[in-house]
Amino acid sequence: KLRVYDQPTGKTLAEHKVVRPFASGERFEIELPKPDKAGCYHVDYTFGRKDGYRYSHTISYAAMHPAGKNEDLFSDDFKFSCLTHIEFNSMNERRRLMAYMREMGANYTRAGGRYWNDFQPNGPDQPFADWKRYVKGTDICLANGVERGASILIAPKWAKDPDVDVNALAHFPRAECLEEYVAKFAGGLAGRVRHFEGNNEPNLTDWTAELEGRYERMLYKALKAAVTAVIAFGSVRMSVFFTGKVLLPSGLTPIR
Q1: Residue 35, number of CB atoms within 10 A of its CB
Q2: CA distances (Å), 118 to each of 16, 69, 222, 242, in order?
Q3: How confident is the model over 28-45, as pLDDT tens digits?
Q4: What is the pLDDT of residues 125-142, one digit of tens each?
Q5: Which residues, other chains included, contact 166 with Cβ-Cβ below 8 Å and sequence gap of 6+?
Q6: Model-wide pTM > 0.85
Q7: In whole angstroms, what is the distance from residue 58 CA to residue 44 CA?
Q8: Are 116 and 153 in contact (CB under 8 A)?
Q9: Which of 92, 117, 188, 225 is 20 to 30 Å apart from 198, CA to CA?
Q10: How far apart are CA 43 and CA 33, in angstroms?
């Protein structure tokens, strides 16, 4: 049994129910509705056995055209996204995961799992820890036709702005430290990555809206100096993509 529904309305968009025995390893396809706007759909599905055992799971997929234009959603730049945290996987696991994503038709992943405090825990002059592994994982995505979004999150303690008192989950960085890191990180991924996530789940921090806005402006400046990029800022409900201007979730209207 499968149900597709919209977020955040919960409106049912499609339902499928198949009652018959399945052979081991059998595959079948179900056409999922495409989002008609920049937004997210969820799929709840349940498998059952004759003995009464049931397994339920939810997956999500999203339309994330950077400009948020309905008429452009299904151009070559349309992104059918699945969230992964591939930095926690071995290279063989990443290959299998990306092959699966390719088979299901996904072409984008918000691939988190390794952040600023992982790359440079001890200082700005430290070479990026496990950088070759990070780039190799990115290349595995690209080899399967999956574009990777990279995350610029969690400043290390040494980069903390001493004048901003926020919790340690997300130190607020000094502008000069952020610019130096972004130049190395984003610049080192040039030609491989063009989407960068600036923050994620800020509801888990004690940053104010004003502080978040200040950080967005700092990061935007740093990224534009390093690369020509599409930048995403995570929020409680969704990530907002923009090119050249900041956009809000509600209607994707620019901040003046």
Answers
A1: 22
A2: 43, 36, 20, 27
A3: 777 777 766 556 677 777
A4: 999 999 999 999 999 999
A5: 172, 205, 206, 207, 211
A6: no
A7: 4
A8: yes
A9: 92
A10: 10
